[in-house]
Amino acid sequence: xxxxxxxxxxxxxxxxxxxxxxxxxxxxxxxxxxxxxxxxxxxxxxxxxxxxxxxxxxxxxxxxxxxxxxxxxxxxxxxxxxxxxxxxxxxxxxxxxxxxxxxxxxxxxxxxxxxxxxxxxxxxxxxxxxxxxxxxxxxxxxxxxxxxxxxxxxxxxxxxxxxxxxxxxxxxxxxxxxxxxxxxxxxxxxxxxxxxxxxxxxxxxxxxxxxxxxxxxxxxxxxxxxxxxx
Length: 230
Known about the structure:
The structure is a single chain. This protein is of the alpha/beta class. The protein is built from four helices and eleven strands. It has one domain (about 20-230): Rossmann fold. The protein is about 25% helix and about 25% strand. Strands 1-3-2-8-9-10-11 form a seven-stranded mixed β-sheet, sandwiched between helices. Helix 3 links the parallel strand 10 and strand 11 (about 200-210). It is globular and about 55 Å long. The chain starts with 20 loop residues before the first strand and ends with a helix.
């Protein structure tokens, strides 16, 4: 794996994760650090969301994962998908399940090596990366404290694997979208929220001006939310 040398990397970067990753350590002297695991969207790579590091509170180790399915030079995906004539999306369910298993493994190995319990682990990402974080929360809530679904959607294919509702007690979920997002517009976030309302999750939802991208206002609010998790 690689290390982000522009950051002050103090903890030994976790290795043997099963996925390529970039890493930034929590601040020196941090008592009981947290771990934030981020995943990029379709066609990007692990370096993309390392750009969020200035908004990640100093008490967090930051780990940015690379998806396993190559699309092109420096371009990767968690699973392939197509769009049907009616606008619905059809995914490669086998790829999604395989990627989710790899993400769970990477999260658990990184947390173990860094000495961070699941109660201080946050997993999520942007677009397809947020889908993966949400799906991990719904199927393996014991692996994390909270999930981030930034401009993402709920996969119906994952719901048959959902853990019992009581297993999600005490977990938190961030859901956000852009008001002008034409890739994954507001109804997708609304479906996430409608499903989350049936579960004992602590949900924070927000809409921000703009399209399928992360702006300063959204990142500032996300930073405050991460800081407030306990």
